[in-house]
Amino acid sequence: MHSGYSVRENRAAFLSSNSGTDARSHNLERVIPLAAHVPRIALAVLRVNEMARNADRLVADVVLLSGGKLLQLRNKVFVLSDEGRRLALRAAALLGNAILRSAALQVSKDVSFSQWKKATCPCCGGPPDLAVKDDAHRTLICARCDTQWSAPTMGCLGCESTRPPTFVRVDALDLGYELLVCHACARYLKQRRNDGLQLPIIERAVTIELDSAAERRGLRI
Prior knowledge:
By secondary structure, the chain is an alpha+beta fold. The protein has helices spanning 11-15, 23-35, 38-65, 71-107, 200-206, 208-216, and strands at 128-133, 138-142, 148-150, 167-172, 177-182, 187-193. It has a six-stranded mixed beta sheet. A hairpin with a 4-residue loop joins β4 and β5. α3 runs antiparallel to α4 (71-107).
């Protein structure tokens, strides 16, 4: 079983957030001014990442010729280039989402997903990262293409567990969300009510701290 927090664990400690601040507004202020520059930022990050890969190869050659004496320097360069790759992947994911969203809108015209009973996206097969609920219904939003469909269960999307300690809910009231966590599957899902819902890209931006908190504990969507 995945080792995680207990049901009564302090919410603020898990989420690493300050409940006295308006986290949604704070995150939006950081993200929105950069939105218009996403393509330029992505291109710059990819170029930096390519430079890092070239540096990797250069240092590897030097290490080989020096008989391993520069191994420590090589490891330091590799750590930096790994961070560059992570940034490039994030930028690529953002751009890829825009492309897949456009494609999904085209292929899903006049198509009903009411009979779709799987936890994966009916358009691209991706996992959901957001969920919107009302009193008796939950809608999933694909992390890749933003397609929406009805959830096959109100519990864990992997094992359908609905009760603690296996399946627990962590409130993030300052964000208007709750983090649904399954210890058995090591999966998580960000869920909120439908009122006041913004575009998925905005919702992801304001809840990025939830993703970071979950990923630090080895959880995945």
